[in-house]
Write a structure and sequence with these properties.
By secondary structure, the chain is α/β, with parallel strands linked by helices. The protein has one domain. Helix content is 34%, strand content 24%. The protein has four helices and five strands, in the order αβββαβαβα. The protein has a five-stranded mixed sheet with strand order 3-2-1-4-5, with helices on one face. Strand 4, helix 3 and strand 5 form a beta-alpha-beta unit. The radius of gyration is 17 Å and the shape is globular.
Length: 129
């Protein structure tokens, strides 16, 4: 009985302390959209996110954090539309989605190059509420 309880406790601990899975999206000043390092069109956005999720090792009830980095000079409506395209996947196979939105000057920071994800993470931005 003790072994069964220990196994249950260990698997519960592992489940509650699992790290979230991050999907990084950049919307630059020209309304070009990058998911990780792949450029996608607006109408293919949800399929691109779905492909990333299917290629990952996610399990039911894990949390996915969608980090959207939008150019601060874009109209908020466009960034909201991008967000809506992605969140229409939720819930996807029992996966919980959370959205984090960050605004910055993508031209000034030269984020159109590869390695943009590491670059924005160095800025220590706070999400827009």
């Amino acid at each position: 009985m003790k072994i069964l309880l220990l196994l249950f406790t260990a698997s519960l601990f592992q489940f509650t302390n699992s790290k979230p899975f991050y999907v990084h999206i950049l919307v630059n000043a020209n309304k070009e959209i990058k998911i990780e390092n792949k450029t996608v069109s607006f109408d293919k956005l949800d399929n691109a996110v779905k492909t990333i999720l299917e290629d990952s090792t996610l399990q039911n009830n894990e949390q996915v954090i969608i980090q959207i980095y939008g150019d601060e000079n874009l109209k908020m409506g466009y960034i909201t539309d991008v967000q809506g395209q992605i969140l229409k996947l939720s819930p996807y196979k029992g996966i919980r989605f959370k959205r984090e939105l960050y605004l910055l000057d993508t031209k000034k920071e030269r984020l159109d190059q590869s390695g943009w994800i590491n670059r924005v993470q160095q800025f220590h931005l706070k999400p827009v509420k």
